[in-house]
Amino acid sequence: MRTLKRSTGWRAGLGDFSDCLLAGLLVALASVPVVTAAPALTAGCRILDRARHDVGAPLWTTFWADFREAARGGVLFGLGCLAAVVVFAVDLEVVASMPAAGVLKPALWVLVVAGVVVAVRTCEVMATGSPAWRRAAGAAAREAAVVGPAWRREFGAAAREAAVVGPAWRREFGAAAREAAAGGPAWRRAAGTAAREAAVVGPAWRPAFVAAARETAGSPGRSLLLAAAVGLAVLLVWMLPILALVVAGPLALAAVATGGRR
Fold first, then answer.
1. What is the full DSSP assignment across 164-208?
2. Each residue of 60-69: pLDDT tens digit?
C-alpha cells in the first residue's frame, strides 16, 4: 500500500512538472511577436492555476483560448512594457555618463526589478483575479448535489412502473433518455455560463496593474519571492539560452504560487 502511494505521488509530480514545461513552451511560442508576451504569460498563469485546483483540461486548447481572451487589451500592455524597456536602456546610457553613476545605477536596477515584478504580477492578477470557472464549478457541484442527474430519477421511475404495469419500461426508458439529452448535465451548462461570464466580466488591464502595484508594495515577502524567481529565470537563460523555451512555465507557476488569491 505504501509503495503504491509513493508510485502514484511520483507520477502525479512528474505530470505536474511536464505541464509546467509545456506551459512554458506555449508561452514562448505565443511571445514570438514580443508585444504578446504579457497575454501569453497571463494564459500560462491561468492554465497552471486551473491545474493547481485540479480542473483538468487539455493545456493546448485552453491555453490558446485564454491567450486570445487576454490579447484583447494585453497587446497594449505589452507595448507599454516594451516602451519601458526602451526608456530603461536610454536611462542606463545616460546614467553611465553621469558623475554619480555608482549610486544611480544600482537604484535604477532596483526600479527595473520592481517594474518587472509588477508586470509579472499584473499578468497573474489578470489570470486569477476573477476566475469565473471556479464559481461555475462550485455552482455545478451544488446543482448536481441538489437536483441529481435526470437519467437516474427517470430510470428509477421506469423500474418501478415496470414492476407494477409491465412492459412500460421501454417507453419510460426512452422518455428518460430524451429528458436527459434535453436537460444536459449541470457542468456543461455551468461551463457555458463560465465562458460567457469570463468574456464579459474579465478584469481589465489597467485595474489589474493598479492591483498588482498595490499587492507588490503591500506584500514584500511574496514580492521578494517573485523577484527571486525572475532573477533565477534570467540566470538560467543567461547560462543556457535554450532554456528560454520553457523557463516561462516555472515563472508563471511562481507568480501563481506567490499570488494572494487562493
1. HTSTTHHHHHHHHHHHHHHH--HHHHHHHHHHHHHHHH---HHHH
2. 889 999 999 9
